[in-house]
Protein backbone atom coordinates (compact mmCIF):
# COMPACT_ATOMS: atom_id res chain seq x y z
CA UNK A 1 0.00 0.00 0.00
CA UNK A 2 1.34 3.43 -0.97
CA UNK A 3 0.76 6.42 1.27
CA UNK A 4 1.34 10.00 0.24
CA UNK A 5 3.21 11.96 2.87
CA UNK A 6 1.06 14.80 4.11
CA UNK A 7 2.18 18.39 3.98
CA UNK A 8 0.20 19.83 6.84
CA UNK A 9 -1.02 23.35 7.43
CA UNK A 10 -2.47 24.02 10.87
CA UNK A 11 -5.13 26.56 11.75
CA UNK A 12 -4.68 27.44 15.41
CA UNK A 13 -1.60 27.47 17.61
CA UNK A 14 -3.31 27.06 20.97
CA UNK A 15 -2.88 24.03 23.23
CA UNK A 16 -4.12 21.49 20.67
CA UNK A 17 -2.20 23.00 17.77
CA UNK A 18 1.05 23.19 19.77
CA UNK A 19 0.64 19.60 21.01
CA UNK A 20 0.26 18.37 17.44
CA UNK A 21 3.20 20.47 16.24
CA UNK A 22 5.45 19.13 19.02
CA UNK A 23 4.40 15.53 18.27
CA UNK A 24 5.33 16.01 14.62
CA UNK A 25 8.72 17.53 15.44
CA UNK A 26 9.37 14.69 17.92
CA UNK A 27 8.75 12.19 15.11
CA UNK A 28 5.54 10.77 16.56
CA UNK A 29 3.49 11.77 13.50
CA UNK A 30 4.87 11.27 9.99
CA UNK A 31 4.16 14.48 8.13
CA UNK A 32 5.70 17.84 7.43
CA UNK A 33 4.23 21.04 8.84
CA UNK A 34 4.19 23.67 6.11
CA UNK A 35 2.98 26.43 8.40
CA UNK A 36 0.61 27.50 11.13
CA UNK A 37 -2.05 30.20 10.89
CA UNK A 38 -3.43 32.05 13.89
CA UNK A 39 -4.76 35.52 14.54
CA UNK A 40 -2.75 35.61 17.76
CA UNK A 41 1.01 34.88 17.83
CA UNK A 42 1.20 34.03 21.56
CA UNK A 43 0.84 30.27 21.00
CA UNK A 44 3.52 30.26 18.34
CA UNK A 45 5.84 32.25 20.61
CA UNK A 46 5.39 29.54 23.28
CA UNK A 47 6.98 26.92 20.99
CA UNK A 48 10.66 26.11 21.34
CA UNK A 49 13.13 28.19 19.34
CA UNK A 50 14.19 25.03 17.49
CA UNK A 51 10.65 24.46 16.21
CA UNK A 52 10.10 28.14 15.39
CA UNK A 53 13.22 28.17 13.22
CA UNK A 54 11.61 25.48 11.05
CA UNK A 55 7.96 26.55 11.16
CA UNK A 56 6.40 29.45 9.27
CA UNK A 57 3.84 31.51 11.15
CA UNK A 58 1.02 33.23 9.27
CA UNK A 59 -1.41 35.82 10.55
CA UNK A 60 -2.75 36.32 7.01
CA UNK A 61 -5.05 33.48 5.94
CA UNK A 62 -4.77 34.30 2.23
CA UNK A 63 -0.99 33.81 2.33
CA UNK A 64 -1.30 30.68 4.49
CA UNK A 65 -3.79 28.94 2.19
CA UNK A 66 -1.49 29.46 -0.83
CA UNK A 67 1.27 27.39 0.80
CA UNK A 68 1.97 23.85 -0.43
CA UNK A 69 -0.13 22.01 2.15
CA UNK A 70 -2.32 19.13 0.99
CA UNK A 71 -4.05 18.79 4.37
CA UNK A 72 -5.28 21.60 6.59
CA UNK A 73 -5.90 20.72 10.22
CA UNK A 74 -8.26 23.02 12.09
CA UNK A 75 -7.21 23.11 15.74
CA UNK A 76 -8.70 26.45 16.72
CA UNK A 77 -12.43 26.75 17.42
CA UNK A 78 -15.91 26.27 16.03
CA UNK A 79 -15.76 29.89 14.91
CA UNK A 80 -12.60 29.16 12.94
CA UNK A 81 -14.41 26.33 11.16
CA UNK A 82 -17.18 28.76 10.22
CA UNK A 83 -14.68 31.34 8.99
CA UNK A 84 -12.21 29.17 7.09
CA UNK A 85 -13.58 25.70 6.20
CA UNK A 86 -15.29 26.61 2.95
CA UNK A 87 -12.27 28.65 1.83
CA UNK A 88 -9.94 25.71 2.54
CA UNK A 89 -12.09 23.35 0.48
CA UNK A 90 -12.43 25.88 -2.32
CA UNK A 91 -8.62 25.80 -2.58
CA UNK A 92 -8.75 22.02 -3.19
CA UNK A 93 -7.16 21.22 0.15
CA UNK A 94 -8.19 18.34 2.38
CA UNK A 95 -9.59 19.48 5.71
CA UNK A 96 -9.53 17.77 9.10
CA UNK A 97 -11.58 19.33 11.88
CA UNK A 98 -10.88 19.12 15.58
CA UNK A 99 -13.85 21.38 16.40
CA UNK A 100 -16.47 19.01 14.98
CA UNK A 101 -19.24 20.67 16.99
CA UNK A 102 -19.26 23.38 14.33
CA UNK A 103 -20.81 20.91 11.89
CA UNK A 104 -24.20 21.17 13.60
CA UNK A 105 -24.44 24.75 12.30
CA UNK A 106 -26.92 24.76 9.42
CA UNK A 107 -24.98 27.63 7.84
CA UNK A 108 -22.11 25.22 7.12
CA UNK A 109 -24.11 23.37 4.49
CA UNK A 110 -21.63 24.75 1.91
CA UNK A 111 -18.98 22.44 3.36
CA UNK A 112 -21.14 19.41 2.61
CA UNK A 113 -21.98 20.66 -0.87
CA UNK A 114 -18.33 21.22 -1.75
CA UNK A 115 -17.36 17.79 -0.45
CA UNK A 116 -20.13 16.06 -2.39
CA UNK A 117 -19.19 17.83 -5.62
CA UNK A 118 -15.63 16.45 -5.56
Features:
118 residues; alpha/beta; Rossmann fold; 6 helices; globular
Residue runs with pLDDT of under 50 for 5 or more positions:
none
Which class best fits the helix and strand makeup?
alpha/beta
Radius of gyration (Å): 14 Å
What's the multimeric state? Answer: single chain
Number of strands: 5
CATH superfamily: NAD(P)-binding Rossmann-like Domain
Largest sheet: 5 strands, parallel
Rounded mean pLDDT score = 88
**CATH architecture label:** 3-Layer(aba) Sandwich
Assign the CATH topology: Rossmann fold
Specify the number of helices: 6
Helix content: 40-55%
Tertiary shape: globular
The topology string of helices and strands comes to EHEHHEHEHEH
What is the rounded distance between the termini? 23 Å
CATH class: Alpha Beta
Task: Write structural notes for this entry.
This protein is of the alpha/beta class and 118 residues long. The chain has one domain (6-117): NAD(P)-binding Rossmann-like Domain (Rossmann fold), CATH 3.40.50.720. It is 41% helix and 19% strand. It has helices at residues 15-25, 42-45, 49-54, 61-65, 78-90, 109-117; strands at residues 6-11, 31-37, 57-58, 71-74, 94-97. It has a five-stranded parallel sheet with strand order 3-2-1-4-5, sandwiched between helices. The model has no long low-confidence stretch (mean pLDDT 88).
Report a brief summary of the structure.
With 118 residues, the chain is of the alpha/beta class.
Q: Topology, pairings included?
A:
Blueprint: E1 6-11, H1 15-25, E2 31-37, H2 42-45, H3 49-54, E3 57-58, H4 61-65, E4 71-74, H5 78-90, E5 94-97, H6 109-117
Parallel strand pairs: 1-2, 1-4, 2-3, 4-5
Helix pairs in contact: 5-6
Amino acid sequence: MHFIRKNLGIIGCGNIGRTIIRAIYEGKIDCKVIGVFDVNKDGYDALSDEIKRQLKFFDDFDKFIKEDANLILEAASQQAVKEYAVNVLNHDKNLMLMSVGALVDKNLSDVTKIYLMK
